[in-house]
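Table 4 source record.
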Amino acid sequence: MKSDFRNQPKRNMQIRASSVRLIDNDGTMVGVKPLQDALALARTRGMDLVEIAPQANPPVCKVLDFSKYLYELDKKQREARKKQKAGSLKEIRLKPRISPHDLETKIKHAEEFLSNKDKVRLTVVFRGRENQHKDLGQTLLDSAKAKLEPVAAVEGVIQLLGNRMSITFAPKQQQPSKAQVN
């Protein structure tokens, strides 16, 4: 948990304001105090004086345990990064003359990816004479769309780019179940 010291808030003797708006360690507002009085209060409690809002006039400082404060900040940032994780895009390639069982297997893989909150792109690749039968790819993607309907939402329409026909699916947002309060 190495933190860059330049991005840390000022504490104790690093604070340069002559007076500060002081918040106690239990969250109560003490009021505007001279910096030396605030530092003395923090020292008597065995804690640090940390500048929370340096832009305010006078700056807002809080009496707290600095290492615990840094840990809580780091924990919040880690949680935010977890929630920010955007599902990646997984591509599954098909051929227009795929057997029904192979198609079922590919659809099961797509369902697994969707359950992991990843987007899935099904792509039908046409080769040689298959390029003349684009309707086979269309029916193949339509059947896959029907099978993935319960677990996925379709993003856009079926696209034809050169010798590839593709469609993208996103996982459906599940409604949180209402917990019974007893």
